[in-house]
Amino acid sequence: MSPTDSYTRFVNRPFGKQVAKTIGLPRPVPLRRHTQGDRLASGSILVIGESDAGNTVAEQLWAESYDVRRDPGLKQKFSAIIVAFDDAAHPSDLSERVLQVSAALRGLEPNGRVITIFRDPQDSSISSDANRIAVRHSVEGFTRSLAKEMRFGATTNGIILGQDVTMAAPAALAALRFFLSGRSAYVAGQFLTVSSSAGAVPADWDTPLADMVIVVTGAARGIGEAISETLARDGATVIGVDMPPAGEALTTVMNRVGGIAVQMDITDENAGNELLRMAEQRFGRLDGIVHNAGITRDKLLANMDAARWDSLIAVNITAPLRINEQLLAALGQGVVAENFRITALASTSGIAGNRGQTNYAAAKAGIMGMTQALAGQLAKTGGSINAVAPGFIETAMTDAMPAATREVARRMNSLQQGGRPVDVAEAIALFHTDAAAGINGTTLRVCGQSMVGK
Ligand code: NAD
């Protein structure tokens, strides 16, 4: 497995670039990824829209010494274009700002960002206002389509402000920073909905998880390993869990990130209570859990047997449900923090369905249901739960696919390449910050805007 696939390396060399251009083949580019201390943007940021949200964004970025422009100008280069539509009342209000985006697009740098900001179409205070509901849906459609027109690693994503939520809300600012930075490298055509003003901005945006203790299941390799590294990079102490046969790999990862290794099968009836006991003994606290451990047992349903179905459901959905129950029974009683944060790995298969994966898709759709169901309970004390749905991620699992199938899956998205485990980890890390508390009960796709599903 290579960090950049061989086709991407080929088309980024002069000869390969020429061949791809001549015969119209995909031309993926290496994506900009985050390293500690990186600025959100290296060049100018254009902020379009003299609305509440537009003005708040411009002021925030000015305060951090970014080169903020409010006008596309002539032949200007931009690292990012942010367009606020929060005051739009009718689809005919979009034209002026959309055309400003159009004028600026040619100046968008490789790996640049376009971010739309608009209000929630589900907002109950406008439930019978067809004009306002229409325009909010219009911005959604605009954002998804523009995301498909991006080139050279650039992305378009949207921030949705819920009822009474302003752009100054901690989670709105956290979403803005996520989409601007290299942390969202493989997120395209997606939305973060900020449903409340809960949460607090961190003292240092580089270590937003400082002092937190977070459990990561399936931490010995793949996406779980990357999640452990990313949470530790952002300041957290990780309790890494994996099966006894993966014990050695788990210890290696935990030594690297300064965490503790726990050999455990998450399907054990008492797994949640045992984790609680261990967190109490070692740290006296537990701030969150990442339900990452998962298995595949692919078979067409006509050939499915009980072992394949039952083992997959047990690991991928029954265990997270039971562990949550055990941990949440202790919510606010000392060890489990009041602002406890849960994240879980879903999958685009759980959204769109996938041939040969009835068991996997059932479990992953269940994860998204669990996320919606527990959001209200967690929000009462300042907690949250969110899911991340990866598309094609370069791991040992996808490396084992037949070459032709793999190559097709890799290119079937707006960025024309597979994502990396760290791309999933960055989204998980965002949801564990206190700043993101106002994002709750959602599923974020990290899939390069895969053609699969919505
Ligand atoms: P992986 O197989 O590389 O790693 C999964 C880890 O979970 C392994 O270390 C395994 O030992 C552990 N595990 C499995 N069963 C366990 C159990 N009962 N108790 C404790 N640990 C257990 O998988 P990955 O590709 O890194 O995927 C991680 C998560 O992301 C999974 O939930 C997967 O469904 C999801 N996902 C992955 C992709 C992808 O493209 N790789 C796409 C969508 C979703």
UniProtKB/TrEMBL annotation:
Pfam families from the UniProt entry: adh_short_C2
Domain Ketoreductase: 212-391
InterPro entries found in the cross-reference section: KR_dom (IPR057326), NAD(P)-bd_dom_sf (IPR036291), Sc_DH/Rdtase_CS (IPR020904), SDR (IPR050259), SDR_fam (IPR002347)
An example Gene Ontology biological process: monocarboxylic acid metabolic process
Domain of life: Bacteria
Family: Belongs to the short-chain dehydrogenases/reductases (SDR) family.
Protein name, UniProt field: 3-oxoacyl-[acyl-carrier protein] reductase
Record organism: Enteractinococcus coprophilus
Lineage of origin: Bacteria, Bacillati, Actinomycetota, Actinomycetes, Micrococcales
